[in-house]
Specification:
Blueprint: E1 2-6, E2 15-19, E3 29-39, H1 41-48, E4 65-73, E5 85-89, E6 99-103, E7 107-109, H2 116-122, H3 125-135, E8 143-147, H4 152-163, E9 168-172, H5 176-184, E10 189-191, E11 205-210, H6 217-221, E12 224-232, H7 244-250, E13 257-260, H8 268-283, E14 291-296, H9 300-309, E15 315-319
Parallel strand pairs: 8-9, 8-11, 9-10, 11-12, 12-13, 14-15
Antiparallel strand pairs: 1-2, 3-4, 3-6, 3-15, 4-5, 5-7
The structure holds NADP nicotinamide-adenine-dinucleotide phosphate.
Amino acid sequence: MRAVAIQHFGDPSGLQVVDLPTPSPAAGQVVIETEAIGVGGVDAMIRRGTLDGYGFRPGMVPGSEVAGTVMRVGEAVDPDWIGRRVWAFTGVGGGYVEQAVAAVDDAVTLPDGLSSVDAVTLGSAAPVAHFALAHGRFAPGESVLVRGAAGSIGIAAVQLAVRGGAGAVAVTTSSQPRGSALRALGATHVLDRAGDGDLTAPASYDVILDIVGGSRLPAFLDRLAPNGRLVAVGMVAGLPPADLGMRLLEAFQQSRSFSTFSLNTVPVAARDQVRAESFTAAARGELAAVVDAVLPLDAAAEAHRRMDDGHVFGRIVLTP
Ligand SMILES: NC(=O)c1ccc[n+]([C@@H]2O[C@H](COP(=O)([O-])OP(=O)(O)OC[C@H]3O[C@@H](n4cnc5c(N)ncnc54)[C@H](OP(=O)(O)O)[C@@H]3O)[C@@H](O)[C@H]2O)c1
């Protein structure tokens, strides 16, 4: 079968089409004929070699979420899965393929009316946004800032905060068109990457979801209201400075908190339930899946080039 592997780490040209044996499912696994493959920020970090401490080797197939039809099942898997349209998490890699292997526990049946492209746009992002807001103890009426809102997690977070009755939903983005698109999804204030640019925006926030990290993160701790919570969800700009905690201690009387959030800490059943609810909401038109581009699997390098150029809004999806 056709697949795309990282033949060398670094620039996107390292992503090359290869021929791999058709996979057989082990016990507890399903094999899915892929219709859509999500291109994630983590795929780009792995390909760039930024995560080289994790022991990735050339020949690795990136991609962690796919949607398609179950073709084969392994031992201890109900044969009724065969023929079902599903979304599935394939792990840290293994997604850029015509036939993907996933644990049946990481597969969720798609509702009628939801395309595979929309499924891989929301399948990971919507649960991350949902549980990150919950981790920040977001409550109706509170003000929210989504830092790095133009990616698939931020886009979902904006919509969920609006639906959850936020008093204000501010976003950061480096682009005016992306800001306008985020407003159309319900954002009330559009800020630049430094958090400036709208004098009418709240001076402080009850909840900040931070997908960016990097050197500017401590300055955003200063934007927390008394008892405000900043949840670090991603680190697209790298790690923040090590003395980050000093910012909280210097504002001791504000009772602010900083935490990280990873979906890995959410029990699988809860994750799958929220994922299925997100899919149903999307099929009903209550949650928008924002797709930047749909490209053929063979154009994976081009997809990564576009991500590196920094003009992507939402998700790039590959189709075999
Ligand atoms: N917590 C979890 O369980 C979980 C699960 C999956 C992924 N993640 C993490 O989430 C992140 C990817 O999320 P995503 O796909 O939604 O994000 P993304 O699309 O990679 O980036 C989001 C936005 O951040 C802005 N940005 C990019 N580089 C920046 C920089 N150097 N400085 C400031 N802003 C920058 C860009 O918007 P503008 O150009 O418009 O500013 C970009 O659209 C990764 O760090 C990944 O590890 C976390």
